[in-house]
Amino acid sequence: MTTPPSKNVKLGFWWFASAGLMALLLLPSVRHTWFSHYGRRWLYILSFSFCVSYLLLPFARMIALRLKILDYPSNRKIHTDPTPLLGGIPIFIAFTGGILVNSILDQEMGFILLGAALMTLTGLLDDAFTLSARLKLFCQLLATVIVILAGVQLTLFPPVWWGWVGNLFLTVLWVTGITNALNFMDGMDGLATGLSVITAGFMGIVAFQTNQPLMGWLSAAMVGSCLGFLPYNFRRKAPASIFLGDAGSTFLGFTLASLAVKGNWAENSIIDIVAPILIFGVLIFDMIHLTVDRIASGQVKDFKGWLEYVGQDHLHHRIAALLHSPRQSVLFIYLLSICLGLSAIALRNARTVDAFILILQAAIIVVIVTILERKGNKRRR
Q1: Which residues contact 128 (CB under 8 A, 6 or more apart)?
Q2: Could you tell me the sign of the dihedral formed by the alpha carbons of 100, 201, 187, 238, in that order?
Q3: What is the dihedral of CA 318, 320, 324, 330, to 10 degrees?
Q4: How crowded is the C-beta side of 195, counted as CA atoms within 13 Å?
Q5: Do 210 and 348 touch, CB atoms closer than 8 A?
Q6: DSSP character at residue 71
Q7: Backbone φ and ψ of 70, nearest 5°
Q8: How far apart are CA 208 and CA 202, in angstroms?
Q9: CA-CA distance, 260 to 263, in Å (whole number)?
């Protein structure tokens, strides 16, 4: 019988070093001199968000242990000890704090934060009490509607009635799809948060390429918040000391998807579509592959079954079966996501024909990964 870890908060050297950095960041003389330069603001936002997340996580872990909000081992999970949840709460606080302290909150971002808060609350209740899949989907749809009411929606179709319906449908599909895809990816130490860092990082780079400083700063806040969590969740010689929980994974997925809709990625409509698809490519691939495979194999027969199905057939499970290592599986997926993100960067000055070539390259990479993971799936079975 496994025993939960100690409920005491142990603060090491790096925690106090981060506290010292946080104290410096809060000094007006530091903020308004070195970081006041336009090109350095992103670094201040990233550092501030990192410190808040890193400093709060030991206390979130303590609270989760005291309230017994734990993820217990089971046949479909790879961890062997009860592990505290609530890791997503400091990330949410750090991201929100980074935005508010740096006064980069416009109306659209305000509504995105409102929807993200709903996702975080829903996930928190699910971590503590376990909610039904239908109720969680309803909350996701409600959060998406909040974002759409602020004018944050895709504009791929012309401004006519059928175009408006198409844009609305695609926005709902994109936001809820990415939200659930990242939630599904939260199955190994460091995976969901690391993918969030990579995704937000590439979004930030493209934002600065396309002269969208606000989007770049928002991406920096996301990167910093997640980096503060990784030392507790993706440790070199020990298992994770705390998990994101649904509160964290759904917050990250929803926020990243909404920021992608909010951004303007290029003047060319093809590139405008392809760039975010490449950046989110790993999540999109896993979601589509799972859905097709489960329906084709008869494991899922209807929408209710799709919502409620839980299994070890995700991309990270298949790759881990092939490589015989969860850590190597995570690193493999990191590299795959970076590879697709670099293609999105290359699209900045690309012609339409170049965009199609990059799409073809991404498709070939997906085929290669599919071959590998099918081999891994045979080993797993």
Answers
A1: 67, 69
A2: negative
A3: 160
A4: 35
A5: yes
A6: E
A7: -125, 155
A8: 10
A9: 5
Residue 83, strand partner residues:
71
How do residues 57-108 score in pLDDT, each as one tens digit?
999 999 999 999 998 887 777 777 899 999 999 999 999 999 998 888 889 9
Cα angle, residue 361 at apex, residues 360 and 362 outer, rounded to 5° = 90
Q: Domains of the chain: which residue ranges? A: 268-381
Taking residue 71's Cβ as centre, other Cβ atoms within 10 Å add up to: 19
Q: Are strands 70-71 and 83-84 parallel, antiparallel or unpaired?
A: antiparallel
Q: Residues 123, 135: contact at Cβ < 8 Å?
A: no
One-letter identity of residue 180: N
Q: Using CA atoms, how far apart are residues 367 and 344, in angstroms rounded to an integer?
A: 19
Distance CA 129, CA 327 (A): 30
Kindly give the parts of the chain with pLDDT less than 70.
1-9, 36-39, 266-270, 308, 376-381
Three-state secondary-structure class, residue 218: helix
235-to-223, 225, 242 alpha-carbon distances in Å: 18, 17, 11
Cβ-based neighbours of 350, under 8 Å, separated by 6 or more: 271, 358
Question: Which pLDDT tens digit goes with each residue over 264-274?
Answer: 776 656 677 78
Positive or negative CA dihedral for 145, 148, 153, 157?
Answer: positive
How many residues are present in the chain?
A: 381
State the Cα–Cα distance between residues 53 and 19, nearest whole angstrom: 11
- Please give the Cα distance from 94 to 22 (Å, whole number): 12
